[in-house]
Design a protein that fits this description.
heterodimer; A: 198 residues; 7 strands; B: 264 residues; mainly beta; Immunoglobulin-like; Thrombin, subunit H; 2 domains; 6-stranded antiparallel barrel; 8% helix; 42% strand; globular
């Protein structure tokens, strides 16, 4: 079982790398740990032993090159949509503080790359169904609100050093964001109130 | 003495292959006539017609798949003798080719000889050719017959070719590799590298696209992407290839090749 825990102090909750990391962990988990008999795509953390490479996409520090078959996870654009006028959720007259909330929504794309059309397509099927069926787990780990729809794209070829195919799986996700504004005057008056005049 | 000879193999695209032959049979002993087809002159041959009439001299093979521009087929006759049931006579395998007129053939042979001497004594090295299987029994592990897909690119039975064994037995050849330029690209997969290079070798064995060439000194393995046959009066003299070096994760590196025997 691959455990996901954000290891970096600079990466906050729901940061892009946090979300991608969770997807990487969940997809790696599908391909490792469990005894699948003659399952041909067993994942290992060691590059020389793994039968499939599962990583965040477009990373410039990886040692492996042209890793195939491979699954690479990226985040597409995100939209923060309003649910209320000016995103206002509540206002406290006494303290003059305002609470806000909105909905963050984005898309994760998972590229399943292989030199064979059949393998790329099959990996796409496995990934798409796995993400679909692990929605509850994502909700529990990342507090996602929703994780649908999952789209399994067409398998497309391109030529590199060898013939290569990619099947893209995309999944939308949404989560709640809330924050509070405390006016500076209120904070200053609290400070003044706590300091005795000499 | 029965002497069969295939006179001509002519493709009538896109429908059939016309095969024409003559049989010298002064004593009238010709019995069963069989025509067989193969993807290489060495075989294995598949019988496409048998019990042909004794006075037949051609056959139209409608079943052959005329796969691509670099795919060839060889035909061979097998004749049984009425005088001796155990006697079978084979013709030489013949494919679509120009008639080798003697003086033209000698010119081509001289050019081949010069290249052989250049490669073997001056600037060549021994490489191993792995000819990709294009016929035979399909892989029982990963081949999906309904969509004709290979489902496991790391399959140890077919090496991602879809045919059992993946490649024919290795053949040692003389060749020369041109200087390599390694280009680096950056994309979804992170860093990827492309190394394409030229390769010159003799006229035989015929190399097809997607065959593999192995440098036995370094175990670098290359896939054939392009092929240019240099010809003299339509007779093949040597083969100029464009190769692509395979990524280090490629299953083709797992195909067993002896990397110690560099004699030819």
């Amino acid at each position: 079982m691959t455990l996901y825990k954000n290891p970096n102090k600079y990466i906050g909750d729901k940061f892009t790398l946090d979300i991608i990391g969770a997807y990487v962990a969940v997809i790696r988990d599908r391909f490792s740990g469990i005894d699948y008999g003659d399952f041909p795509w067993k994942f290992s953390e060691e590059d020389n032993k793994t039968r499939i490479f599962i990583d965040a996409g477009s990373v410039d520090t990886y040692e492996q090159k042209d890793a195939r078959p491979g699954i690479f996870i990226n985040r597409s654009s995100m939209v923060f949509s309003k649910l209320a006028i000016n995103n206002r959720a509540a206002y406290d007259v006494k303290s003059d503080t305002t609470d806000f909330y909105c909905l963050g929504g984005g898309q994760i794309s998972v590229d399943c790359i292989s030199k064979n059309r059949g393998e790329s397509s099959t990996l796409g099927d496995i990934v798409a169904t796995h993400i679909l069926m692990s929605e509850d787990i994502f909700r529990a780990v990342l507090n996602f609100r929703d994780m649908s729809p999952i789209t399994l794209g067409a398998t497309q070829p391109w030529e590199k050093d060898d013939r290569t195919f990619v099947t893209r799986v995309t999944g939308e996700f949404t989560y709640d964001i809330s924050w509070r504004q405390i006016p500076l005057a209120v904070r200053l008056s609290r400070i003044f109130g706590s300091v005795e005049p000499s | 003495m029965i002497t069969p000879k295939i006179e001509r193999v002519l493709p009538v695209y896109p429908e059939y292959m016309h095969i024409q032959w003559s049989i010298a049979d002064p004593n009238g002993f010709v019995g069963n006539i069989e025509l067989a087809r193969s993807g290489s002159p060495e075989g294995p041959f598949t019988v496409v017609a048998e019990n042909l009439p004794k006075d037949s001299f051609f056959y139209q093979d409608f079943e052959v798949s005329k796969f691509g521009l670099s795919q060839n087929f060889w035909y061979r006759l097998r004749i049984s003798s009425n005088a001796n049931a155990d006697e079978k006579v084979l013709s030489l395998p013949v494919t679509v080719e120009h008639k080798m007129q003697p003086h033209r053939f000698r010119l081509a042979r001289k050019a081949r000889r010069d290249l052989y001497v250049t490669l073997s004594r001056l600037n060549g090295a021994v490489f191993v050719l792995l000819k990709k299987k294009r016929f035979g029994p399909r892989c029982t592990t990963c081949y999906n017959s309904f969509t004709q897909d290979v489902v496991v690119s790391t399959c140890g039975e077919c090496y991602s070719t879809g045919y059992q064994g993946g490649y024919h037995d290795p053949v040692s050849i003389w060749g020369k590799v041109d200087p390599t330029v390694i280009q680096q690209q950056f994309g979804t997969q992170g860093i990827s590298e492309i190394a394409r290079l030229g390769f010159v070798t003799l006229d035989y064995p015929l190399i097809d696209l997607e065959d593999i060439i192995v440098d036995i000194q370094t175990n670098r393995r290359f896939k054939v992407l392009q092929k240019m046959q240099t010809e003299s009066s339509n007779i093949v003299v040597h083969q100029d290839l464009q190769l692509s070096e395979l990524a280090r994760t490629a299953i083709e590196y797992s195909f067993p090749v002896s990397l110690t025997n560099d004699t030819l």
